[in-house]
Write a structure and sequence with these properties.
Length: 482
């Protein structure tokens, strides 16, 4: 998704971003929509382009299971333009299935503000009440039923609080890879040991902390060894090597009420010393320490390894000589509906899943029989899963007024596409509906330049994900060669 500061040719000069900021989202006292557990919230951010009243989805956080007080790990990175009103809308949903269609999930509330409000608040921290609003919007811009019509409650009703924290991003491009283990953690489970995981927070100028990483859960052990993880130094400390980093250790519980084991603090400078006696930390539970005079700790955490390397950018690869090839395929069919194809033929069951101007025999069909799976893109999904291992990206532009829910699923921005139990290695698909950029359509005034920007928006990250997964580094830029 392009930054908020971009504008189209013919609509005035482009605002110059004053800075790039990172938004962290937390919520408190959300509505509980689940009968036998708590809500599983997700936050969806919508933005408006200059001169447009159309809300467009900017991104989504991860889903947090069983929590009415989520601290989302996913960050939204936006260009902040001082001279421009940058409207934001945050919608909260209780996720009930794997469907990317938000209308299939329970609406929990929404809040409106501007990016300037967040940046200009004390400590760049803004709290706003969540309300039901009057209607929700489909992520592709279509208006859905009023909130109250799908079990969301009374419009205007308060339903919790959203907390938005903005921080200016530093220019540090280093990525640190760390691995930790623990020893003799407190036993929290009655019939077993503990299921420990760690949560990392970086400190803010006002003394609060922002979540920046969460490890996996290691089951039934008091001596866990967590997998190594990579994290941008910017996310860990925003380039300030002496900024406090707080680490909390928990025992995971299925219902979301994770038991606190203890905590410790460190800094990037300390961690950068690597494996040594400096990086063996006592895990302390302050409440237990106050109650028990002989209390020492609730176990220890040890840094096993620490490495750091520069993060390469898309431009590094382009400057180093990486070339992109572009192939176009056009489906000339008037309709892809089942009733418009010949018996035994399917527009979506041919070959490796590519788009063709001629229908192809479907291997799953006998004459006069429809595809048994009734999913037009099943073979396509399998082809995309396999193609995710290759150095390629797929851009789909949907033409017409049809519902494109299947194409949104292929896009895989929020739920990685899978087929036959195998999940795609990475997201390689970008889907854009052409109608959003037609004169008089939902995106009227955005022009063809807007369409071009949208269809190419995910290429840089997709290229980087492939290169990084295979350890391929860019060639030195010619100007850097002695």
């Amino acid at each position: 998704m392009a930054g908020l500061g971009a504008s189209e040719p013919g609509t005035g000069s482009s605002p110059v971003p004053a800075t790039r900021v990172e938004l962290t989202v937390s919520c408190r006292q959300l509505l509980d929509r689940d009968t036998f557990s708590k809500s599983d919230p997700i936050c969806v951010l919508y933005t408006q382009r200059p001169g447009s009243h159309q809300w467009r989805e900017f991104g989504r956080t991860e889903v947090i299971d069983n929590s009415l007080n989520p601290d989302f790990l996913h960050k939204f990175v936006l260009d902040y333009c001082f001279e421009e009103r940058q409207n934001l809308r945050f919608d909260l949903y209780d996720v009930d299935s794997k469907s990317p269609d938000l209308s299939k999930h329970d609406f929990l509330g929404q809040a409106f503000c501007t990016l300037g409000e967040i940046v200009g608040s004390a400590g760049s921290r803004l709290e706003k009440p969540l309300t039901m609003g009057t209607a929700t919007m489909h992520p592709r811009g279509r208006r859905l039923a009023p909130a109250a019509s799908h079990g969301s409650g009374i419009p205007g009703k308060k339903c919790g609080t959203i907390i938005l924290l903005a921080e200016e991003l530093g220019n540090c491009r280093d990525v640190a890879t760390l691995q930790f283990c623990a020893n003799k953690l407190d036993k929290k489970d009655f019939f077993g040991k503990s299921d420990p995981f760690m949560v990392f927070y970086r400190s803010n100028e006002d003394g609060t902390f922002t979540i920046c990483h969460k490890t996996e859960v290691v089951r039934n052990t008091l001596n866990p060894v967590w997998a190594a993880f990579a994290i941008p130094v910017r996310a860990l400390c925003n380039g300030d090597h002496d900024r406090a980093i707080k680490v909390e250790v928990y025992d995971w519980d299925r219902d979301g009420s994770h038991d606190f084991i203890g905590e410790f603090t460190t800094s990037y400078r300390e961690l950068a010393r690597g494996q040594s006696h400096f990086n063996v930390y006592e895990v302390v539970n302050p409440r237990k320490k106050m109650k028990k005079k002989k209390y020492l700790n609730s176990g220890t955490v040890t840094l096993l390894s620490f490495t750091v390397e520069a993060e390469h950018t898309f431009l590094d690869y382009i400057k180093g000589g990486t070339q992109l090839n572009f192939t176009v395929a056009i489906d000339f069919t008037a309709s892809n509906e089942w009733g418009c194809i010949k018996p035994g033929m399917s527009w979506h069951c041919g070959g490796a899943g590519g788009v063709s101007a001629q229908p192809a025999p479907c291997p799953a069909l006998r004459p006069h029989q429809l595809c048994p799976c009734r999913q037009p893109c099943c073979p396509t999904k399998e082809a995309i899963v396999n193609a995710a291992k290759l150095p390629m990206s797929i851009i789909i532009v949907g033409v017409g007024q049809a519902e494109f829910d299947a194409m949104v699923e292929l896009d895989g921005d929020d739920i990685r596409i899978s087929s036959r139990g195998k999940v795609a290695e990475r997201d390689i698909v970008q889907f854009v509906p052409f109608r959003d950029y037609m004169t008089g359509g939902p995106g009227a005034g955005l022009s063809m330049a807007g369409l071009a920007r949208e269809v190419l928006a995910e290429i840089p990250d997709q290229l980087l994900s492939y290169m990084k997964a295979r350890g391929i580094k860019p060639h030195p830029h010619p100007s850097h060669v002695p």
